[in-house]
Design brief:
By secondary structure, the chain is of the alpha/beta class. It has one domain (about 5-185, about 215-240): 3-Layer(aba) Sandwich (Stationary-phase Survival Protein Sure Homolog, Chain: A). Helix content is about 25%, strand content about 30%. The protein has helices spanning about 20-25, 75-85, 110-120, 145-160, 220-225, 245-250; strands at about 5-10, 30-40, 55-65, 65-70, 95-100, 125-130, 165-170, 180, 185-190, 195, 205, 210-215, 230-235. Strands 3-4-2-1-5-6-7-13-8 form a nine-stranded mixed sheet, with helices on both faces. A two-stranded antiparallel sheet has the order 9-12. Helix 2 packs parallel to helix 3. The chain is globular, with a radius of gyration of 19 Å.
């Protein structure tokens, strides 16, 4: 009998997040699942790792086809710990999510969900991140299932180049216009901190702000796709070299 594939799952919303539980339900018929996720929310962690305190893990659940650990570290720590210490053999895929909230455009640079799959890509493992444009803990993930299953199955069969991963974002609402393969939109955050007076003097700040899309009318971008009801798939690389500028710099007179 053919061996079921093995998927390593993690997220940045924490091991008990509904999005992760929904992802487990979607993928369990397809593969054996090994889950190592943060013990609490680590949103915005990007590829951060823990180096100043020890990282610990706790086994929460173990049965045939499903193992779940909580980890005290960041999302990237979870993948590192699983690959280095907890797994007996390498996984066939690393999958992040389902994130509560969209990770398109500039958010991809901050997302711990993307930190999960970038870490997988650094190890040469096909890796896919899933996010839904809804922050609510009561978000309905059910409409995503056939898309998630199809994207995972295709990635498993086709593979991905070394050092790349897929960033998949779903619009909210439960119905989709289709799938678009996109590039990341250029954007930024503004008014990022709200100052509050400290009762003992001075100020402290709450992080918030507003996301601005600098190219809202470009249909090639992930942000445009989401705004128009499409599932956005953005191929993402861990190689951050700007090759166009590299060529120009080679002509500079250093």
């Amino acid at each position: 009998m053919d061996r079921k594939p093995l998927f390593l799952l993690s997220n940045d919303d924490g091991v008990s997040a509904p999005g992760l539980q929904a992802l487990i339900g979607m993928l369990r018929p397809m593969a054996s699942l090994f889950v190592v996720a943060p013990d609490k929310a680590r949103s915005g962690a990007a590829c951060a790792i823990t180096s100043d305190v020890p990282v610990s893990q706790r086994l929460l659940h173990a049965e045939e086809g499903l193992t779940v650990y909580a980890c005290s570290g960041m999302p990237a720590d979870c993948v590192k710990l699983a690959l280095d210490q907890l797994l007996q053999s390498g996984p066939d895929m690393v999958i992040g999510g389902i994130n509560h909230g969209r990770n398109d455009s500039i958010n991809a640079n901050y997302s711990g969900t993307l930190g999960v799959v970038r870490e997988g890509a650094l190890h040469g493992i096909p890796s896919v991140a899933f996010s839904l444009s809804n922050h609510s803990l009561d978000a309905d993930f059910s409409a995503m299932q056939p898309y998630v299953e199809r994207i995972v199955a295709l990635t498993l069969s086709e593979g991905l180049p070394y050092g790349t991963c897929l960033n998949v974002n779903f619009p909210d609402g439960g119905t989709y216009s289709g799938i678009r393969v996109c590039r990341m939109a250029y954007g930024r955050w503004i008014d990022e901190f709200s100052p509050c007076e400290h009762p003992r003097g001075g100020h402290y700040y709450w992080l918030g702000g507003e996301q601005v899309n600098d190219e809202p009318d470009d249909p090639d971008t992930d942000a445009w796709a989401l705004e128009h009801g499409y599932v956005a798939i953005t191929p993402t690389t861990v190689d951050v070299t700007d090759y166009r500028l590299k060529s120009q710099l080679e002509d500079w007179d250093f």
